[in-house]
Amino acid sequence: MDEEYENNLFLQCDKCRMMVHARCYGELEPVGGVLWLCNLCRPGAPEPAPPCCLCPVIGGAMKPTTDGRWAHLACAIWIPETCLSDVKRMEPIDGLSRINKVFPFSLFMFPHYYGLLPLFPFSLVFP
User: Fold this and answer.
1) Are 74 and 112 in contact (CB under 8 A)?
2) CA gyration radius, the chain
3) For the PHD-type domain, which residue ranges apply (predicted)?
């Protein structure tokens, strides 16, 4: 399912049915009429889908990190210590080593696509 929304194509993964804006997810090439798969559904992606290394939620708009893990784009954008190495491709997520391991975030809660998630003890999120 592809829809135009404010000049930003809305894409739906043909496997998991997750929906994203093309530019927000880093899709630079038009996919007109071609099956589209999100990063976690593409060949070579880890199975089963890994949890976000920044929160305990599995699934959603995830991207690889520079250290071989996966994280939600929303989590990476809301956490000040993280950044995107390539902002056009919206990946990989970098800066995980800069997160303070004693008190990981300056916020008590952060917005997430499923609502507000309370912060979990760092040891539960980062192995």
Assistant:
1) yes
2) 15
3) 49-127
pLDDT at residue 118 in the model: 47
Tokens of 121: 């003890």
Burial class (CB in 10 A: 0-12, 13-18, 19+), 75: buried
Do residues 22 and 3 lie in contact, with contact meaning Cβ atoms separated by under 8 Å? no
- Give the tens place of pLDDT for each residue, 62-95: 999 999 999 999 989 888 889 999 999 999 999 9
Residue 35's identity, in one-letter code, is: L
- Cα–Cα distance between 3 and 18 in angstroms, integer? 14
Residue burial 26-51, b: 16+ Cβ < 10 Å; e: rest: bbeeeeeeeebbbbbbeeeeeeebbb
